[in-house]
Structure formats: structure tokens, C-alpha cells
Amino acid sequence: MLIALTAFLLYHFGSHTAALTPPLDRTAAVIQKDVADETRRKQALAIVDRMKATIKASAEQRSQSVASLNDLLAKRTTPASQIEHAAQPFIGEDRATAEKLLDLRFELKSVLTPGEWAKVLPPPVTERTGTKKTA
Question: How far apart, in whole angstroms, are the C-alpha atoms of residue 91 and residue 89?
């Protein structure tokens, strides 16, 4: 029962921030290679570093929240309302992180030229046709 409840909570309140961020090491490498202007390259790499720091801080906070929730789940006498209340921070934390990462992504886009941006974050490739999606 506790395992099912934990799985339910983590599934529904799990982090969605990874969907907003590309593999940041690859992003930094492409910026290093393809952004010729040193000032803009440094700005872009600083933004990527802030993205990494945001993800790391979010993971640490999530770890603390999961530990707190697991402590409650370990007690058979914990009321469901208390468990639900303890799970609420997952939603707020995830939204705050997603919004911050999205803001940083727009900030990164504003530093790069359209051609550099296309190299840093190329359009996704569709599975069926192997062609790039256009929005």
C-alpha cells in the first residue's frame, strides 16, 4: 500500500523540468564551438551554468522533500490529509523550477543569433520520417 502510494505521488508530482532543458553539456560544447563572438559566448555559457545550478538546486530540494514524505509514509498512523499536505510542495517546486529554466532558455535565445540558436537547439526529428519538425 505504501509503495503504491509513493509511486502514485512521485508519478503525479514528479519533476518535469528535464523536458524543458536540453543536455546542457552538449549545449555548452556547441556554444563553445559555434559562437564566435567572445562576449556573447561568455554570456551564453554563464546562462548554461545558471541552468545547471537551477537543476542541481531543484534536485537537492526534491531529495529533501522526498525524504520528508517518506518519513510520513513510514508511519501507518499518518492521516491521508497529512500525506497530501506534505506532497503539495512537489507541485510548487516543480513549477518554480520549470519557470526559471524557461526564463533562462529565453535569455539564452536572446544572446544567440538565429543561426547559433538553431545549432544549440536544433528542431526535433520525427521518428517516422526522419525529418525535422517545424513549428
Answer: 5
Please state, in angstroms and rounded to a whole number, the distance separating the CA atoms of residues 10 and 2. 12
Predicted TM-score (pTM) of the model is 0.70
Q: Is residue 60 part of a domain?
A: yes
Tell me whether residue 38 is in a domain.
yes
pLDDT of residue 123: 72
Our CA angle for 127, 129, 130, nearest 5°, is: 65
**Domain count for the chain:** 1
The pLDDT assigned to 95 comes to 85
Whether 116 and 37 have beta carbons less than 8 Å apart is answered as: no
The Cα–Cα gap between 31 and 25 comes to: 10
Distance CA 86, CA 54 (A): 22
Sign of CA dihedral 31, 33, 34, 35: positive
Helix, coil or strand: residue 79: coil
**DSSP per position, 97-133:** HHHHHHHHHHHHHHHS-HHHHHHHSPPPBPTTT-PBP
Residue 79's domain spans which residues? 23-110
